[in-house]
Amino acid sequence: MKNKITWIIVGVFIIVSISLLLAKSINEDAWICTEKGWIEHGKPNSAKPTTLCSKIEKEQIVEKYLRENISTLSPQKEVLGGKFYITKIIWIEDSSGIIEYEDGHIVVKATFDFEIQTNNQNNDYSVIIKNFKIIQ
User: Fold this and answer.
1) CA atoms of 55 and 93, how far apart (whole Å)
2) pTM (two decimals)
């Protein structure tokens, strides 16, 4: 009877010890990629990753670029002194979409394909519009 209790205590001790070792070996201090972007978990030793991790981050960077450059990207030019502004963006796939924009006088709809390049030294991203085609 005493021998059986001793083995049970030794077994429980071994299981608890292994569990503690496994828990300590898991890296609690890391960057985690979420739908909203990189989230700091604990206190990571490394800097925030420079790669884009979420679809939302990509869309925000491309949308900002499109809003700033829509007048030069559009093959259709503004009329009567108007200035193009974006009214709608529909994301089709990871690297394409449909954009609607106007200048107060004309409404234009176009498709676009894009690529995002990363400059790891500056933590900057460059958007390259590969195809911009008016469809309406």
Assistant:
1) 10
2) 0.65
Residue from 97, 111, 110 nearest 59 by CA: 97
Displacement of CA 132 from its chain's centroid (Å): 22
Give strand ranges (E) for the chain: 30-34, 37-41, 85-93, 96-102, 107-119, 124-134
Instruction: Give pLDDT tens digits for 63-91.
Output: 999 999 999 999 999 999 899 999 999 99
Average pLDDT of the residues in 12-32: 75
Residue with tokens 């954009």: 99
DSSP letter assigned to residue 78: P
Domain ranges (residues) in the chain: 2-41, 55-134
